[in-house]
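Input sequence (365 aa), recorded before submission:
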Amino acid sequence: MFRSPPPIRVLDPVVANQIAAGEVVTRPASVVKELVENAIDAGASRVEVSIDSGGTRRITVADDGHGMTRDGLLLAVQRHATSKIRAADDLLSIQTLGFRGEALPSIASVSRFVLQSRAAEEESGTELRIEGGQVLGTAPVGCAPGTTVEVSDLFFNVPARRKFLRAMSTESAHVTAAVQSAALAHPGIHVVLRRDGRRARNWLRVGGWRDRVAQVLGLERAAPCAGDRGPISVEALVGAPDLARAGASALHLFVNGRPVQDRALARAVLVAYGTALDQGRYPPGAVFLTVPPDLVDINVHPQKAEVRFAHARAVSDAVLSVLRAGLEKAFALPATPGDGDYASSAAHRGHFHPSHREPATTGRS
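Predicted structure, token format:
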């Protein structure tokens, strides 16, 4: 028997937000990442993150940034409401970590959500409560200038998502990694992490990225590397070859202050060590790239975890040549073939063949 197809309908906003949350919010660490990035964009000089039960029971992120008025607060939890872009052309010159206006409504749709904020010029703040995407109301509240977000019972209304969470220790480790990445990229911010009521990390403000890397990663023997290749600036502090370990988890990569886990960039770092590292072993450290905004597209992934370079080969070559110069000076590494050319050096090391190279326009985490 023929059945007519169901009619097309516009999704209820709560359902739409839960779908969006599935892309943006995958675990407590992704909530922390989004909220900490909002705090940084708000000009905070101090960010404090507190989690209970690995973040599954409660996440609190407090900052001393510029805060929001009541009207701004109500707009901030609507989808695609943002102060960071105005037109499509703005996507070509994004200077902030966030820009889509999706994080807060996505988080609020899958949790019990409390947002308190006060703009510096206001005498009092505003508290907004949302449960599972439904606004419960607002009320005046006494608070310091800045913003505090409390997220409780993550995925309470989406049990299918909650069952995919790992053990509390695993979720806690992911949160710690997210906070650490933010601290590495922003040395001028005091970052505190509390887990189950205890202060686990306390990174005070420091004068620059080298001090922050030493503070966070504790590298005793590391090579400072810095240089420009055309419009691309590379700064790094990477460990001695004997500190290398299997996998790239201890190697932190940043593009314009944004953490990325890009295989091509990690491979360029590996190749810079020449024969000093065994295949598959990566050094600890941090590499910071500054690329003109119009030469890197960050709008390619809901969690902003991937970037696309206009000239990926030039970026990899810049990382390779700058790190090689610093490593040879610091550790007297032997020169490697290729004379700064990424493709020939990588092929020599056996990590990939030029015919298998990733597309030149893509940088993927």
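Checked by second reader. The first helix runs from residue 13 to 24.
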